[in-house]
């Protein structure tokens, strides 16, 4: 009953109900914000291809884009 007489837990001590904060880790960038040049080159190749199989014609650009995205931790 000590809480009735004005004693209170230390203000700086976390209570069990309070979540513990973790140190900020480097945040992963959004996929739309990385590999912009590779994406543009890939898209231009696919859109403006005169080939019957644009994916085959643009395979090197597609691979460059995939490698770039993998470098940022994205699986395409």
From TrEMBL:
NADP as UniProt keyword: no
GO terms, biological process: mitochondrial respiratory chain complex IV assembly
Residues where Cu cation binds: 32-33
SUPFAM superfamilies: Cysteine alpha-hairpin motif (SSF47072)
Superkingdom of origin: Eukaryota
GO MF annotation terms: copper chaperone activity; copper ion binding
Location of the protein in the cell: Mitochondrion intermembrane space
Keywords assigned by UniProt, alphabetized: Chaperone, Copper, Disulfide bond, Metal-binding, Mitochondrion
Compositionally biased region (Low complexity): 13-26
Entries under InterPro entries matching the protein: Cys_alpha_HP_mot_SF (IPR009069), Cyt_c_oxidase_Cu-chaperone (IPR007745)
Residues spanning the signal sequence: none
Annotated region (Disordered), positions in chain: 1-30
Record Pfam families: COX17 (PF05051)
GO cellular component: mitochondrial intermembrane space
Protein family: Belongs to the COX17 family.
The name this protein goes by in its record: Cytochrome c oxidase copper chaperone Cox17
Source organism of this protein record: Penicillium cinerascens
């Amino acid at each position: 009953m000590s809480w009735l007489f004005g004693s209170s837990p230390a203000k700086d001590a976390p209570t069990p109900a309070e979540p513990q904060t973790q140190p900020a880790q480097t945040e992963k960038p959004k996929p739309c914000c990385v590999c912009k040049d590779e994406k543009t080159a890939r898209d231009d190749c696919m859109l403006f291809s005169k080939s019957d199989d644009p994916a085959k014609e643009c395979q090197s650009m597609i691979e460059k884009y995939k490698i770039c995205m993998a470098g940022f931790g994205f699986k395409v």
